[in-house]
Design a protein that fits this description.
Elements lengths: L3 H7 L12 E6 L4 H18 L8 E3 L2 E6 L2 E6 L3 E6 L2 H11 L2 H4 L15 H16 L5 E11 L2 E10 L4 E5 L2 E4 L3 E5 L5 H5 L1 H9 L3 E6 L4 E8 L2 E9 L7
Parallel strand pairs: 10-11
Antiparallel strand pairs: 1-5, 2-3, 3-4, 4-5, 6-7, 7-10, 8-9, 11-12, 12-13
C-alpha cells in the first residue's frame, strides 16, 4: 500500500504534481477495486487525523466513491484512485525548488528524489532552449526551459519551455518567476503525455497563454496551437524534414 505521508513528501510515481485552481491532483492506476477502496479508506482516515477531524463515510455516485475531508477530495472512479489536495501556489513553488536542490538531499547530481526524463526529452528541451536564445538575443523578451512559473495566485505549472514578451513578463516577484508566457512548449513522455494534452493544456488556455506547442520526440512531430476565443486551435503540424518557421 502507498503511504499517504510518503507520497506527500516525496511525490507520486508517473504524475506531474502541480497546482491547478488552488489544488494539486494526483492519480493512481489500479487493477484491483478492493485495493483502491482500501487506499481510499486509509488515506481519508490519515488526512482526517492530520487535521484533527472525523473521517467521513464516502459518497456513492454510480461506480464512484468520493470522500471529502478538510478541503481535500479522495475518490475511486472505477478502478483508479484520485486525490485532490489544496495547496497555496507560493508554498508549492518553494517546495518544488527544495525537492530538486541536490545540496539539501546530500545527493550526487541526478540522484535526488525526482524522476529522470526518458531519452530524447532532454535533447529536445535543449533544442528549444537554443531556439529561445536566438529569439531573445536582441533583447526581445525572455525565455527559459524547465521552469516553474506562478501563473496566478492559485496556479503553478512548470512547462518544458517558456517565452515571455517584455510586456507580459514580471521577471521576479520576490525571488521567483511570475507572469503569463506568450508561448509554452511541452515535450511528451510516456508518463506525462496525458497531463500535457489534458489538464495542462486546459490550464494554459484558461490563463491566456497565446501559443502552445507539443513536441513528440518519438514521432518527431511538432504541433502548434494558437489561442482563439479562449480555446486552442491547431494551426500547423511539422514533421521530420519540414521547414519550421516560428
Amino acid at each position: 500500500m502507498w503511504d499517504l505521508e510518503y507520497l506527500l513528501l516525496f511525490g507520486v510515481p508517473n504524475n506531474k504534481t502541480e497546482v491547478y485552481g488552488g489544488g494539486t491532483r494526483v492519480s493512481f492506476p489500479s487493477t484491483d477495486r478492493a485495493a483502491s477502496e482500501q487506499h481510499l479508506r486509509v488515506w481519508t482516515e490519515t488526512w482526517a487525523r492530520i487535521h484533527d477531524t472525523e473521517a467521513p463515510a464516502p459518497t456513492v455516485r454510480g461506480n464512484a466513491l468520493i470522500a471529502r475531508v478538510a478541503g481535500s477530495r479522495f475518490a475511486v472512479f472505477g478502478l483508479p484512485l484520485h486525490a485532490l489536495i489544496p495547496v497555496h501556489g507560493e508554498l508549492y513553488y518553494y517546495a518544488s525548488m527544495c525537492a530538486s536542490d541536490e545540496e539539501l538531499w546530500g545527493a550526487t547530481p541526478g540522484a535526488g528524489p525526482w524522476s529522470e526524463a526518458p531519452a530524447g526529452h532532454s535533447e529536445t528541451c535543449m533544442g528549444l532552449y537554443r531556439l529561445g536564445s536566438l529569439a531573445t538575443s536582441g533583447g526581445q523578451g525572455w525565455s527559459a526551459a524547465r521552469l516553474e512559473v506562478l501563473l496566478t495566485d492559485t496556479d503553478v505549472c512548470g512547462g518544458d519551455f517558456h517565452y515571455f514578451s517584455s510586456k507580459r513578463f514580471d521577471p521576479h516577484r520576490d525571488d521567483y518567476v511570475a507572469g503569463i508566457p506568450d508561448l509554452v512548449a511541452e515535450v511528451l513522455t510516456p508518463n506525462t503525455w496525458a497531463h500535457d494534452r489534458g489538464d495542462r493544456k486546459q490550464l494554459f488556455a484558461r490563463v491566456g497563454v497565446l501559443h502552445f506547442w507539443i513536441l513528440d520526440p518519438k514521432r518527431l512531430t511538432l504541433e502548434c496551437y494558437e489561442l482563439v476565443e479562449g480555446e486552442y486551435r491547431l494551426m500547423n503540424v511539422f514533421r521530420e524534414g519540414d521547414t519550421f518557421v516560428p
